[in-house]
Design brief:
mainly beta; disordered N terminus; single chain; 27 strands
């Protein structure tokens, strides 16, 4: 979605990650918030450069956001039905929308036979619309955008899961995202489209990846031609599309080893300006790549009363890249197990049965590693489960298998009414 696949997640009093995708909302803004934002800008301009890009300043930024430094959607465009997507231009940034993310997951195999899952996600959260003039924000140090990134690697054979995160502010070129051209970066972490291939690079504390991804199918537009509703009761919505299958090659670094790898990836891109519907606590999202050449994307929006929002939906993608929209009535997702985190003591579903009767699918999903919980510390505490799953099942009675990713948000605390 990922409604987020928001995607990310934050404490219930503040910004909410969407899938590891982060949405920051500050509805309680006002004169005090404006004065605080101006004061913070003065502090940053006077600060030493090393301090200005450090966690201290990012902490101040987060505090401002939680205090209400900018209203959700204030001065920003909102998604509406009927958008005409233009690629590759729309792979780039859309600064007229408040929140945006670029999400990559995949399944890699080394020559040794070892298999891995990976995630690399970049989030952009705007504090103001850069396309609207602001006489208070002419300095190169101007505080206008915050960027986050998550890197994770699942080692199925060793049953281990490693996670790193990074954050930056959109000033002085230290972090950024280019409109009209797919390039997003935080320091030396980046995702960039060169020709028809995406180049991903990230490294931190002994964990690294350097991958090249090439789409084998056209972009799959979710919802109504890319307009994806996130609530049946409110106008919450996003623009959302996927590149559901990309051949992948490159290297990963793990435990001091540089391993050439090859495999298949999935890419999500989502942008929006609205807050998450207040009656929602989180979502369950799935991206599935099947051996018969089909892909499936599904998401369930969970309400506070335990029900599922009727706006929950999905997409079937055939081997030629043609899409079929799935309403909530077209599929079922039934948890088959549970896992309790030894770190946070939170309980998550662990294993699912997915049925799509109209397409003949009955699929069983099992996490390759139980513990794939992400616990981001900087600049905000964000906890969610995002992990690789293996797939076994049947289509019209014929065996089918595959690999996928699941994202589970709101189990380690509510989403605070944010999207």
């Amino acid at each position: 979605m990922r409604p987020g696949n928001i995607t990310s997640k934050l404490p219930p009093t503040g910004a909410a990650p969407i899938s590891g995708r982060v949405a920051i909302d500050a509805n309680r803004s006002g004169g005090a918030g404006l004065r605080a934002r101006r004061h913070l800008g003065q502090v940053i301009r006077r600060a030493h450069p090393a301090l200005a890009v450090g966690k201290f300043v990012l902490g101040l930024i987060l505090a401002l956001l939680l205090a209400g430094g900018a209203r959700a959607g204030e001065g920003f465009e909102v998604p509406r039905p009927g958008r005409v997507f233009q690629f590759p231009r729309d792979h780039g940034s859309h600064p007229e929308y408040k929140t945006e993310w670029w999400y990559y997951v995949g399944h890699l195999q080394a020559a040794s036979g070892e298999s891995f899952g990976y995630q690399l996600t970049f989030f952009r959260v705007a504090l103001r619309n850069l396309r609207q003039p602001d006489p208070q924000a002419r300095s190169a140090w101007s505080l206008h955008t915050v960027y986050f990134a998550h890197l994770a690697l699942t080692d199925a054979a060793r049953r281990t899961f490693l996670f790193r995160d990074k954050a930056g502010r959109g000033a002085l070129g230290l972090s950024g995202a280019e409109p009209g051209a797919m390039k997003v970066w935080i320091d030396d972490w980046q995702a960039e489209l060169r020709g028809d291939e995406f180049h991903l690079q990230a490294h931190d504390r002994g964990l690294a990846l350097d991958l090249v991804l090439k789409p084998t199918k056209p972009p799959a537009l979710h919802g109504e031609g890319g307009y994806s509703r996130k609530s049946a009761k409110s106008a919450a919505a996003s623009y959302y599309y996927s590149l559901p299958r990309l051949t992948t090659r490159g290297t990963i670094t793990l435990d001091g080893r540089n391993l050439p790898v090859a495999g298949t990836s999935w890419m999500d891109h989502e942008f929006f300006s609205s807050a998450m519907a207040p009656d929602l606590v989180g979502w369950d999202w799935f991206s599935l790549q099947l051996t018969d050449g089909w892909e499936v994307m599904l998401y369930l929006l969970r309400r506070q009363d335990g029900s599922v929002d009727p706006a929950s939906s999905g997409t079937l993608i055939d081997p030629q890249g043609r899409t079929r929209h799935l309403n909530l009535a077209d599929f079922t997702v039934t948890p088959t197990g549970a896992w309790t985190s030894p770190h946070t003591h939170m309980k998550y579903p662990a294993g699912w049965e997915i049925n799509i009767p109209g397409a003949g699918y009955r699929l069983e999903l099992t996490p390759t590693v139980p513990d794939q919980e992400i616990r981001s510390q900087a600049p905000a505490r964000v906890t969610y489960w995002e992990g690789q799953v293996k797939i076994q099942g049947a289509k019209d009675g014929a065996p089918v298998a595959g690999l996928g990713y699941a994202e589970l948000t709101g189990y380690a605390g509510g989403m605070g009414g944010r999207f």
